[in-house]
Each structure stands twice: as C-alpha cells, then as structure tokens.
Amino acid sequence: MKIFQQNLTLKERKRGFHLITNEVLAAIPQIAELKTGLLQVFIQHTSASLCVNENADPTVRQDFEMYFNKTVPENDPDYKHDYEGSDDMPAHLKAALLGCSVTLPIRNGRLFVGTWQGVYLCEHRNYGGQRQLVLTAWGE
C-alpha cells in the first residue's frame, strides 16, 4: 500500500461553482504510481464545499448557484449568525448540504470517473479568499 498526501491552496474565486479537477491532479501527480486506489479531496473551510458533477457545460454550474441561492436565501431574519455578512450563514448551510470532501476512484494511475464528471469547488461566500485543500491518495 502506498499513501500520498499534499496540500493545495486554491486562488480566490468569486462566488459560484468552479471546476478544479485539473488543479487537483496537478497537485498530486503521485496517483500515476497507483494501479488501484482512492483519492480523497478535503476542504479545510466551513463556508465552501466540494462536489462532483458535470464538467462540460458551464450552465450546469450556473444553475447550481441559482438553485442554492433560492434554497438557502441570504438576509433571513431568523439567522442569528450574521455578523460576518449576509452571505456567511447561508454559506455554512450550503457547505453542510454539499459536504467537505469527495472520494474518487483511481485505476491505472488516473482518476476513474465518468466522462462528464469533474470536481467542483463550491464557493459560497462573495469574498471567500484562498481555499485550502488536503489531497490524500492511497492504493496499490
């Protein structure tokens, strides 16, 4: 069994859903050494999240943003955690719904995902800043 771990700092991005698959792969080239394994991508933040979805049509990412903004609106008067801005509590809720990690299969040194699948950084803050990821790959 081989285990590799890398940190990845993502540049600040505007609010929305962003494909980061290529950045993740560039940060952990050691997966090429694995015939069979797994890659876990973990985000070290509570107001951004990760998910796997459509990697070709950018309107899917726009629709994700629209849906989550309707589902978890800003400026709800019932929010108690509001001192960091109107986007902060909704960002925490969206991150909880989507999750802080994704796990992807590795086969023959490459990600073994569907043709149209990619890893999204789901940035839920208007000004979230850089985001820190921990990439852990393991396998044979």
UniProtKB/TrEMBL annotation:
Similarity remark: Belongs to the UPF0047 family.
InterPro entries: UPF0047_YjbQ-like, YjbQ-like_sf
Pfam families, sorted: YjbQ
Organism of derivation: Pedobacter cryophilus
Name of the protein in its database record: YjbQ family protein
